[in-house]
Amino acid sequence: MSGASSRRKGADWERALVHRFREAMPEAVIRRGLQYRTGQEMSDVEVPCFWVEAKAHQRTNVREAMRQAVETCPPGRWPLAVCKDDGQTPLVTMQLDDFLELVREWWEARPR
């Protein structure tokens, strides 16, 4: 795959993620990070509370995507790697401590 088609594939995946997150969080401001770049580090998809690293390849390297998310994630956000291998269901990866923190918040906020 050429560099241009690879970049296009990545941009298409980021746009698809924007739509999916907007469906799940209808009132949140969600957008692709690249189109609003100001020179500072940006996530691939801007989502409240998450720092999203989006990857779409024939075979993604989930650990590398997670490493990138962790290294660039600012304090107060959960690093998240959203990876999609060609023809496969997308996967979301978080560090266990972050996931358990999210579960704890959900558990405390759930209706009883």
Notes on the protein architecture:
This is Holliday junction resolvase. The protein is an alpha+beta fold. The protein has a single domain, classed as Trna Endonuclease, Chain: A, domain 1, CATH 3.40.1350. Helix content is 42%, strand content 21%. It has three helices and five strands, in the order H-E-E-E-H-E-E-H. It has helices at residues 3-24, 62-72, 96-109; strands spanning 31-32, 45-47, 50-57, 78-85, 91-93. The protein has a five-stranded mixed beta sheet. The model has no long low-confidence stretch (mean pLDDT 91).
Tags for this model:
single chain; 112 residues; alpha+beta; Trna Endonuclease, Chain: A, domain 1; 3 helices; 5 strands; 21% strand; globular; Holliday junction resolvase
Layout of helices and strands:
Layout (H helix, E strand, L loop, with lengths): L2 H22 L6 E2 L12 E3 L2 E8 L4 H11 L5 E8 L5 E3 L2 H14 L3
Parallel strand pairs: 3-4
Antiparallel strand pairs: 1-2, 2-3, 4-5
Number of structurally distinct domains: 1
Secondary-structure arrangement, i.e. CATH architecture: 3-Layer(aba) Sandwich
Sequence stretches where pLDDT stays below 50 over 5 or more residues: none
Radius of gyration: 15 Å
Q: In DSSP terms, counting alpha (H) and pi (I) runs of 4 or more, how many helices?
A: 3
- Helicity range of the residues? 40-55%
Please give a quick description of this structure.
By secondary structure, the protein is of the alpha+beta class. The protein has helices spanning 3-24, 62-72, 96-109, and strands spanning 31-32, 45-47, 50-57, 78-85, 91-93. The protein has one domain (3-109): Trna Endonuclease, Chain: A, domain 1 (3-Layer(aba) Sandwich), CATH 3.40.1350.
